[in-house]
Amino acid sequence: MADRVLPDANTLLDGVALVRDFPSGDAVIHVLRGVDVSVCEGDIVAVTGRSGAGKTTLLNVLGSLDRATSGQVRIDGVDVGAMDDSARIRLRRETVAYAFQALSLVPTLSAAENVEIPLRLRRVASSERDERVAAALDDVGLLPRAGHRPGELSGGEQQRVAIARALVGRPRLLLADEPTAQLDHDTSRGIASLLRRRVELDGLTIVLASHDPVLLAIADEIYELREGRLEAADRQDR
Length: 238
What we know:
The chain is α/β, with parallel strands linked by helices. It contains 7 helices and 10 strands. The protein starts with 10 loop residues before the first strand and ends in a 6-residue tail after the last strand.
């Protein structure tokens, strides 16, 4: 069973002294060099940094999609690294949602069917699935495209389907990697408003990697990942 420690008040996610190294031939690439991050429930935390700085690696480690070389990730005070496989799967199914650059949409399924996947995995009743899928697609402006397959959608529309899929299960924690990268400014503003609304109405907690000023403007905290370490960033846009 995973160890549990008492978290600070309202803290949902803790990353402590996170190190992630990757072997490369005879060398080792040090991507994360002792990252500490603490995220309170209901906050939006943005991580910036140059391409290749390790933002995606950090999100993967925080979301249990990858294991840190050393350090600890705790969600609700539970050490994720100490979880067995079934507990980790349950965490990813019920607590954490992902909206990453690799959209991973199933090409043979419609937009609605792709969004429905998390609800099917949780065995949500069919009538409730239909209602929640329709609401999620409407939230991202794609309800009229519900029957279209990914190959019939633009890159930006596919990205919005992935966001709807991440939110439809009403997760407690959303990890998002450049979630507006393929969106125009007005659509980005709509997604930013949606995310802030989900935080305010549902208590959603978000950690996102982005350079989009529209997303940075809604963040409660902004950090820069530089040379493997996380530093508080300037808030000139606020």
